[in-house]
Amino acid sequence: MSKLQNSQLTNFQTYNMYVRQMTSLAKNVFKFENLPEIIDVAYMNAKLLKNGAIAFFYDEIYDSVVCLPFSPAGNLDLYGRNRTIQVTGENGYHRILKEDEFIIMYDNYSRYSMYIDILQMAERIALCERICDVNIAQQRTPRIWQTSSDMERTVKDLLNNIDGLTESVMTYRNLQLDKINAILQPAPFVADKITEKKEKLWNEFLRLIGVANMTVQKKERNIKDEIMASQGGTIASRYQRYEPRKKAIDEINKKWKLNIKLAYYDNLPTNLKDMEDEIEEDVIEDESEVDENVIY
Question: In the chain, what are the domains?
């Protein structure tokens, strides 16, 4: 396999690696409690992320509330919401549901698939990673050989033996060393700058899915305004993903007498008011700890 093919394969594998990691993280930032046992949480989260929505309904055969992906199957209401849908299971199960028989849970308030955004961000992050790989590899002394066209094959054979760590003696009748020139031009090291760019893209991805990219700890003496400003975008993203789920769960619990609960796995606030209250509590606790350690 040629070096170009190897490089292209590595590019593709790196991209797929980030797609897997990012989709896995985006799907699993929420924790559900008291869901009906029949519901596969991993399947539900995957469909929510890729389709942007999933339908909950009661199935008499399973005698339980279940959730499945759906497609429109009728007219829309005044606000463009589906009045009739068709749900479909992986085993061929399908059923037509009318508007009073189902409740739709959306992944976000915009009601679109966030998966397409993740794919684009994964491509950018993977590009940064591969640029770093190439730049680091170029820190080896590069070899650019200048020779005549009739000596090209000879020079390539010499280099292949060197790169292959082969100890052999090669003789050529017409080998003219005065026609071979090596031009050395070290590549500038930019991997550190590209890594900074990659980290910014990763933080942007975390903001998109509602994961805090700056841990608010008592040890970090950040003023409240700095924390609020840095986390504003994250809180907005958390809110727009949390609230549609919470609204659907409230309706599901009321309609079918369930007690499903929802929270982010990190248990951080989902709105600015709760974030502000938490910061003030941390400040008060920090001040009390400082007072207890003061020696008068």
Answer: 1-140+190-210+223-296 (2.40.500.10), 143-184 (no CATH)
